[in-house]
């Protein structure tokens, strides 16, 4: 791990260097480190609904379209007072599409961790969201995360299509091999035929239905 002085006197901070001004970094791409969290959410609410919600006894997550939470990156100080009212935050789930240039995928991993470091500095409990694109990001998405901690992944939209499912499950295998998590928060379905082997290995799987699944059931 290393430390980097990101201060640039007299320059406008166009890439949010203040988020990582006191960060420690890990790996070739200098990903900001996240301190481990032992908390396990009992309830979660998506960011776009949380900003106008008064029920603070839940964790905020970002498993929704990027345009709905890009504003957090653009104006982090504006939303800090809101996020601090909640029990904690699952780190932003910036998209890592497999057809995105690799540098953009790495940038989105960095952005999530930069926000996470800054939130922790400001007293917010955070759980890292581990998002990967294809095998090129399996390793990078685990950098700067403590082993045997609580992590979160999003399965929604990754299990229906065979090709997507194979890449997703291979990525989850690699994450578990690397991070050895004690708890995995799963946003979306966690069918036993895919997740039972993790449970059998002693990993606690805490599953939350996606907002889509919840609204679909309510409408039936």
Task: Write up this protein.
This protein has helices at 47-50, 70-74, 76-83, 102-121, 162-179, 192-200, 211-219, and strands at 2-3, 24-26, 31-32, 44-46, 59-61, 88-90, 126-127, 150-154, 183-187, 204-208. It is an alpha/beta fold and 220 residues long. The protein has one domain. It has a 4-stranded parallel sheet. A 3-stranded antiparallel sheet has the order 1-2-3. A 3-stranded parallel sheet has the order 8-9-10, with helices on one face. The longest helix is centred in the middle third of the chain and has 20 residues, at 102-121.
Pick out its properties:
alpha/beta; 220 residues; 15% strand; 7 helices
Write the layout of secondary structure elements.
Layout: E1 2-3, E2 24-26, E3 31-32, E4 44-46, H1 47-50, E5 59-61, H2 70-74, H3 76-83, E6 88-90, H4 102-121, E7 126-127, E8 150-154, H5 162-179, E9 183-187, H6 192-200, E10 204-208, H7 211-219
Parallel strand pairs: 4-5, 5-6, 6-7, 8-9, 9-10
Antiparallel strand pairs: 1-2, 2-3
């Amino acid at each position: 791990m290393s430390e980097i002085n990101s201060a640039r006197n007299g320059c406008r901070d166009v890439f949010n260097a203040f988020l990582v001004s006191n960060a420690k970094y890990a790996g070739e791409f200098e990903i900001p480190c996240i301190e481990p969290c032992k908390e396990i959410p009992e309830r979660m609410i998506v960011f776009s609904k949380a900003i106008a919600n008064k029920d603070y006894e839940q964790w905020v997550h970002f498993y929704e379209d990027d345009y709905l939470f890009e504003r957090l990156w653009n104006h982090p100080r504006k939303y800090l007072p809101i996020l601090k009212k909640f029990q904690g935050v699952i780190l932003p789930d910036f998209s890592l599409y497999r057809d995105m240039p690799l540098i953009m995928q790495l940038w989105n991993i960095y952005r999530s961790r930069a926000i996470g470091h800054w939130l922790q500095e400001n007293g917010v409990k955070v759980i890292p969201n581990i998002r990967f694109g294809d095998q090129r990001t399996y390793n990078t998405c685990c950098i700067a995360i403590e082993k045997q901690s609580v992590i979160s992944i999003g399965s929604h939209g990754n299990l229906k299509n065979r090709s997507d499912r194979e890449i997703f499950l291979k990525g989850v295998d690699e994450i578990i091999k690397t991070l050895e998590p004690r708890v995995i928060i799963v946003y979306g379905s966690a069918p036993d035929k895919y997740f039972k082997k993790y449970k059998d290995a002693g990993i606690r799987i805490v599953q939350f239905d996606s907002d889509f699944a919840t609204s679909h059931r309510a409408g039936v």
